[in-house]
Amino acid sequence: MNMMNVNPNSASDALLDDMSEEMIIDQVSHELAEAPLAAPKRDLPAMMRKIPVTLTLEVGSARISLEELMQIGPDSVVELDVLAGEPLVIKVNGTAIGRAEVVVAGENYGLKVVDLDGLNLDMMAP
């Protein structure tokens, strides 16, 4: 009779080793799935400098009735809420960032910045 020397403990140990290995793999896979992927490191200020924006200079506004609006025609004058000579509002994409004066730049109008108070330009400096 040929008897094999089988140790019952070694078979259960091997099974436990296989199970714990699978459990560790499952746990690591689960942790990796939940962990956010590391985004490539980028120089955000440099990227932001390339985004086009619309810079406008707001002269002023007037609140009028529809009746007054219907009476506006050529040569009409509508008084605005800004005093003559007062700095005008600089806006970037509709958001006020400071004040400026109108100047002539070559053949076009330009703006001369009086102050900037709504935009941190230091953050974007090279």
Automatic annotation (TrEMBL):
Species annotation: Pseudoduganella violacea
Stated name of the protein: Flagellar motor switch protein FliN
Domain Flagellar motor switch protein FliN-like C-terminal: 48-115
Lineage per the UniProt record: Bacteria, Pseudomonadati, Pseudomonadota, Betaproteobacteria, Burkholderiales
Topology in membrane: Peripheral membrane protein
Family: Belongs to the FliN/MopA/SpaO family.
Any one GO biological process: chemotaxis
Record carries keyword Membrane: yes
InterPro entries named in the record: FliN-like_C, FliN/MopA/SpaO, FliN_T3SS_HrcQb, SpoA-like_sf
MF (Gene Ontology): cytoskeletal motor activity
UniProt-annotated location(s): Cell membrane
Pfam families: FliMN_C
